Amino acid sequence: MDISSILEAGLQANNVASHALDAVGNTLHNLSTAEFASDCCGSNNYPTPQQ
Amino acid sequence: MDEFFTPEMGLAAAKVALSDLECRVALVLPTTRQLNEDGRQPQDAWSVIGRPDRGGTKGATEVFSRLSSGQTPTPIIVHTDQLYRPADATILAVLENRKVYLSPVECILNDKYGYRLLVWTASGLRALAAKSPWTDIGSLTIEHLRDCSLLGKRWLERDQQVQRTVEHRLKSGKRQLRYLHSSVANAYMTDLANPTINALVKRIDDLSREFEKAQRG
């Protein structure tokens, strides 16, 4: 395999990894938002998001 | 500013110079508002490589996939100034007084896909034939980026270029590792003795030490 193809494969792998990291980041963000909402509502100190 | 060769002049000159039959040409241009907003980029006929989150551009891998699949090649505009992130700029160029990361996109287009390069500089468009030496491509890319800085505030990617430096990547990497360490410790607070979690935390610590060593060295 020539060096151009190796570098191209590297860019493709980075691209896939970036998308995967974005997906993980979004999931973590959604989870922490959900957890925050749950904590707030469970404490009865704060209104639920719907109120 | 007016007396030197502007990016807009570069695009106009390239459009005049190219014959209709010459499809395998990659024009390396900086990102300026004038080029983006004046509609001077012939985006329907040319592919534009840059960061996909900047409007009207495609990722390099998308363009490479099209070329590999045998679709008719089109002339390409490469905004190499947008390709500074670790995922995009993967070649470390060692200069006299510093090291910077460059994107391999121009080299791949030139070497693998037989594209002639036309690179904007403040003194005019510079051409490199297909299969040029990589050192020539790297040197011209450095000259291009250096001349981009002469555009001042007109250069929209000016403030992002620091991300090409080794120092910035080490600092950024250490920050991300600290964040990862905190996240893992927080998520597994009651389970840190678990061998899997323990090994993960140790690996993060080892990586942090390697980053610190690299920063010192």
What does this structure look like?
The complex is a heterodimer of chains A (51) and B (217). Chain A is mainly alpha-helical and 51 residues long. Chain A has 1 helix and no strands. The longest helix of chain A has 41 residues, at 3-43. Helices cover 80% and strands 0% of the residues of chain A. With 217 residues, chain B is an alpha/beta fold. Chain B folds into 2 domains: 7-164, no CATH class; 166-216. In chain B, 42% of the residues lie in helices and 13% in strands. In chain B, the strands form 2 sheets. In chain B, strands 2-3-1-6-7 form a 5-stranded mixed β-sheet. In chain B, strands 4-5 form a two-stranded antiparallel sheet. In chain B, a hairpin with a 4-residue loop joins strand 4 (91-94) and strand 5 (99-102). In chain B, helix 6 runs antiparallel to helix 7. The model of chain B has no long low-confidence stretch (mean pLDDT 90). The chains are: A mainly alpha (51), B alpha/beta (217). The interface between A and B is medium-sized, with 14 and 16 residues.
Look at the helices and sheets of chain A and give the structural class. mainly alpha
Residue stretches of chain A low in confidence (pLDDT < 50, at least 5 long) are 43-51
How would a crystallographer describe the biggest sheet of chain A? Answer: none
**Count of separate DSSP helical elements of chain B:** 7
Helix content of chain B: 40-55%
Q: What is the number of strand segments of chain B?
A: 7
Rg over C-alpha atoms of chain A, rounded to the nearest angstrom: 20 Å
Look at the structure and give the mean pLDDT of chain A. Answer: 71
Q: Which structural class best describes the helix and strand composition of chain B?
A: alpha/beta
Q: Bin the strand percentage of chain A.
A: under 5%
| C-alpha Rg of chain B (nearest Å) | 21 Å
Instruction: Determine the number of helices of chain A (DSSP H or I, runs of at least 4 residues).
Output: 1
